[in-house]
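Recall the central idea of this unit: under ordinary conditions, the amino acid sequence of a chain determines the structure it adopts. In this exercise we apply that idea directly, starting from the sequence alone.
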Amino acid sequence: MSTTIDIAKIAHKQLTGFNGHLTGPHDAGYDEARRVYNSMIDKRPVLIARCTTPDDVAQVVRFARDNELPLAVRGGGHNGAGLGTVDDGVVIDLAPLRDITVDPQARTVRVGGGCTWGDVDRTTNAHGLATPSGIISTTGVGGLTLGGGLGHLTRKFGLSIDNLLEAEMVLASGEQVRANAEEHPDLFWAIRGGGGNFGVVTSFLFRVHEVDTVVAGPTFWPVESTPEVLSAYREFLPGAPRELNGFFAVAKVPPAPPFPESLHLRPVCGVVWCYVGGEAEAQAAMAPLLDSLPEPLLHGPAAMPHPAIQSAFDALYPAGEQWYWRADFVKEIPDAAVDLHARFGAQLPTWKSTMHMYPIDGAVHDIAPTATAWSYRDATWGSVFAGVDPDPANADAIREWSVDYHEALHPYSAGGAYVNMMMDEGNERVRASYRDNYPRLAAIKAVYDPGNLFRVNQNIAPAG
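Accordingly, the structure predicted from this sequence is:
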């Protein structure tokens, strides 16, 4: 392999038609260009290529392949495990690919591979429309979608992949293709949950729905009430109207508006709601849970534009902080698991650390586990144990809490995890997260990426 200084020189010579920007270790702005969302990740690529067109992407893919260099693909750069970057390899940065086109009549939105969900939410909301995404608007569209796409609209409209109509891609060969139900249907099946294993997606076409104002916000109880609240929540939510989404959380109240000062940094448990519809209907939908529990410390749901709830966590979790997380799919929450949540929820290592439990039912259950690569259609929740803090001195503490919390609850899980919320945990963990779909994924990988060029991800090895 060439030295790092030679790689940048070689790229400038070979990528003669490249319209983007190339940055190597000796260029100004390198440290900024290589920085990712999770500051626990500190990798040094030999080349960062900011691509402005699919042709740019194709050139860089061929360059990495021909020079036998590891290749990472960065969309929004939110990946907790830092899989949008790589040591001693090439990073394709899709950030300049930010075009968004809404077709209100066809009820679709076409989204560039470098967009964040905030870009999409603002654009679609101008037409009173939305498509399911995550819960933080700075998240990249590409990474979240390819891994599945859990968020505030999941129970009503399904996962992000359930609303994906087609994708334009660059393959390991450098060929540019379109994947949908008619063109490359096997590839289309694989990218709906199979992550970045099969190529670089330069644009997505999503179905959109009528979603303008939602009723959203948190309800908090003291963290000591976790057993009572979680026990009630596990019985209530699966039977609630699909219009009502609510993820369970243990956290500390952020020390900032709109939260009252008397609650700042108080440990709490609660539900973060999002109802697609009016305020009266929302309150009626929440009432059975609220009426069965003591009066909360705070009941904050209110009418707001959909992008407002989508971006509500943005300021709380800016780029550049330490993150370590673990995750699991969950079918049931037995009493023993409730007790463990109460125990670990009362031991948050830092005020930004949290546990979320996202609903996976409603519209998600309408689709068969083999219809897309995303196998866990029979799960009821996706749990994530996220240790977060800006101070590197607390890295060990947040890692230990996340791992211990996960290992204690894992015996009560469905086995695998949502790949978007996994660290680098090994191939067996990846296999468990795809279950019976893994052999088909490996076979498709062997067709489209037999050399495993796209391996800086939750990797699916080519069959054979």
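The radius of gyration is 22 Å.
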